[in-house]
Model the fold of this input.
Amino acid sequence: MIPDPIPAATLILMREGPDADALPEILMVERGAALAFLGGAMVFPGGRVDPGDHALVPADAPDREETAARIAAIRETIEEVGLGIGLSPSPDAATLTRLRATMAAGRSFADALAEHGLTIDTQALTPFARWCPEHVPVRRFDARFYLAAIAREASNPMIDGSETVGAVWMTARDALAAADGGAIRIILPTRRTLERLALYRDFSSATADARAWPIRRIIPFQAERDGVACICIPDDLGYPITAEPVASARRG
Done:
């Protein structure tokens, strides 16, 4: 029996390249090798939606699950890489360090925000996708993916050293090349996402494209394409590649 998916949220952080002609860079984080889920893989910051995230949802929110997921994406990014997206007023590095330390000490996200005079702006995140694979070697997640921009001068990650053991900014194309060369390990949803991100010249084009396509749960499925057994995704959600041979697909 396929288990019920765990609600989760992922944040695709983008920053401008080092010069005007450079492609935007994406923050990729390396999960600790000993972790049961995706140990050693390169992913985007994120994690499960916690009860504390729901507690921060305003009473008048039109979609409580969506808002809780955005809050989770913001919280997880602070915890994993020390970067504050969707916080008001925009915190400096020292405030972010104190906020993170407060949370690490066991205080709730809500209490930590209040202590440091911060509120959440969930509109800083643009919905991008929703992945819910049924391939579950350990556990199954229903993960909402979001886009957000960060200024280059404020983008230095501070890894937590437990779940996240490394973080690097790279273009989507460079990340795909690194995966193809064996330098990093990525799984199928990450690869499909990077292939789509590689189409964008800047954050504006990324958000415009994200808003141009519907967002539905993506549940990869097996089908034959030109006589080859493939892992496929729907072809009406904005992805340039929608099928990959089963033999080469890395699903977990």
